[in-house]
Amino acid sequence: MYISRVIISNYRCLKTTDVTLNPDLNIIVGDNESGKSTLLEAIHLALTGQLNSRPIQTELHPHLFNAETVANYIAALIAKTSTAPPAILIELYFHDDAALSKLKGTNNTLEADLPGVALSIEFNQDYAEEFKSYVADPTLIRTLPIEYYVVRWRGFSDNELLTSRSIPIKPAFIDASTIRNNAAASRYVVDIMRDSLSKGQKVDLALSYRMMKDAFLDNAKVKGVNEALAKKKGEISEKALSVSLDTSSRATWETGVMPHLDDVPLPLVGKGEQNAIKIKLAMESSADSHLILIEEAENHLSFSNLNELISHIATRRGSRQLIITTHSSFVLNKLGVEAVVLFHHGKSIRLNALTSGTQDYFMRLPGHDTLRLILARRAILVEGPSDELIVQAAYVKQHGKMPLDNGIDVISVNSLAFRRFLEIAVLLDRMVAVVTDNDGKVPALATKYADYAGKPKISILYDTDENYPTLEPQLLKANGRAAIEKVLGKTFVSDAALLDYMKDNKADTALRFFKTTEPWIIPGYIASAVS
User: Fold this and answer.
1) Residue 227: how many CB atoms within 10 A of its CB?
2) What is residue 401's DSSP assignment?
3) Closest of 238, 315, 251 to residue 284, by C-alpha
């Protein structure tokens, strides 16, 4: 049993989301604040009816609703435009399995006859008159009045779900990063340990812990302390004062036991090791789950430790569906590029949704290069390392800071692969500029990128003068020999000699431009890319 598709409307940062999932492995890749964590949270909420380990009915607040949707609703009220109050909807479509027949029906957005569940947070029509009075002066409204909202949790068969027991698919949500202090971290691990112990082992621990507390009072030094305290009877109280260990029902072994690693208390072990231990134990204790949700397993881990952890996750998940979020290229490569879901504020694509040639290209490409375009707010694609340095230098020259400081990644790509990256950029609605040589073939270049000519977020930038076909002639055209000689700290007998040197020493020339304090002029097509 597994989730085949997730559709979300107006939940937190996810205004409109539609994600198709693999039955086994899914790697959700996206930048910070792209909605990856929110996606996992929404899936878990629709399966369990819980948020922050509490029933969603007790956790309702206005900020669960998408901020843009709420703002549009309030604006419509002010404009006196009739519009329905916004609602949250989370739909999980399950694979058609006989074990899920009680949840099968067509009561879903797609009207598909499939098993699934839908959790909605919607306006309660029982309060229609009262709400009408509340919104009479919309200028006073800043947030949604969730007091007028109700949670509805149903199967696609339209049957009401009262508890998560009605849903055969059981999730395990693992997010070790939410354990923010040492005591909580220790408690978290003890809880997982308890779930992984047998009934007999838990009885043995409880008995041993009680015997230890009883032995405390028989210690000669403790007896001496209690005898001294007993002499104070009448001074502090008419009853005898003594010390002992807590033997009440709340003082169980779970509250008194501290996990150790090589005899070192867990809270004193490095955060990376803590994180790995939490994830491994959580996977062990959730052995009966059908779905594992893991939030950014790479936190605080070195590459070698991350390698070990990812291997453990890949092996121990067995046949269970796994959804893991990451922005680590290492996780991407280790678990498999073919399982990647590129995700950005509800927009998602799979690498297998690309054309076959592009898909094959990215399957072979190192994960880091694959991720750079996905994670950047904006990208500038260039033909090689020297072009990359010149574009970086041009950006600093215009803006006084490196491109990455503004979320702009300059990526060196073989020019034959520009179209591969542009295919992803269009699907993800990414802003991308291509900085390329004209190679003395301007008409051919225009034809090559004709498909992208009308794309508002795609810029194909090159100089149209075929007499200056590559970067080095373009620098000479824009600056002249005298200016470039000052940058390079060398003199040349002719422009031809200068060009020969620059072409033979591409990297060194670009580095000189990158480091120089001498004035120089940015070629026009590069200036357009960094503007």
Assistant:
1) 10
2) S
3) 315
Tokens encoding 18: 């539609």
Taking alpha carbons only, the member of 289, 351, 292 closest to residue 324 is 292
Q: What single-letter DSSP state applies at residue 181?
A: S
E strands within 327-399? 340-344, 347-350, 378-382
> Taking the domain 376-531, which CATH number applies?
3.40.50
Matching CATH number, 1-170+289-375, of 3.40.50.300, 3.40.50.1580, 3.40.50.1000, 3.40.50.2300: 3.40.50.300
pLDDT value for 365: 61
- CB 314, CB 284: distance < 8 Å: no
At 361, list the tokens: 């290209």
**Which residue from 390, 345, 395, 350 is spatially nearest to 370, judged by alpha carbons?**
350
User: In 3-state terms, what secondary structure has residue 309?
Assistant: helix
Round to whole Å and give the CA distance between 495 and 419: 34
HSE, side-chain direction, 13 A CA sphere, residue 138: 16
Which one-letter amino acid corresponds to residue 62?
A: P
DSSP H stretches of helix in 437-523: 442-448, 471-488, 495-504, 506-515
Distance CA 515, CA 389 (A): 10
| DSSP H or E run through 54 | strand 54-55
Q: Domain coordinates of the chain in residue numbers? A: 1-170+289-375, 376-531
Q: Specify whether the CB–CB gap between 31 and 375 falls below 8 A.
A: yes
> How do strand 431-435 and strand 458-461 relate by DSSP bridges?
parallel
Picking from 144, 143, 106, the residue whose alpha carbon sits closest to that of residue 124 is 144
- Determine phi and psi for 432, rounding to 5 degrees: -135, 135
How far is residue 362 from each of residues 26, 107, 368, 463, measured CA to CA in Å? 17, 38, 11, 29
Question: For 213-229, how does the pLDDT look when each residue is reduced to its tens digit (9 = 90+)?
Answer: 677 778 888 888 888 88
Domains 1-170+289-375 and 376-531 are alike in CATH topology = yes
Q: Tell me if residue 516 falls in helix, strand or coil.
A: coil
Question: For the segment 79-99, what is each residue's pLDDT rounded down to a tens digit?
Answer: 988 889 999 999 999 999 999
Please state, in angstroms and rounded to a whole number, the distance separating the CA atoms of residues 91 and 111. 12
Q: Which amino acid is at 131?
A: F
Using 50 as the pLDDT threshold, list the residues of the chain that sit under it.
179-185, 249
Residues 362 and 351: beta-carbon distance below 8 Å: yes
| Residue 480 buriedness (CB in 10 A; 0-12 / 13-18 / 19+) | middle
Distance CA 149, CA 133 (A): 16
Q: Which amino acid is at 74?
A: I
Q: What are phi and psi of 238, to 5 degrees?
A: -75, -5
| Cα three-residue angle 167-279-116, rounded to 5 degrees | 20
Q: What is the CA 413 to chain-centroid distance, rounded?
A: 26
The residues pairing with 5 across neighbouring beta strands, listed in sequence order, are 20, 93
Contact 106, 156 (CB under 8 A): yes
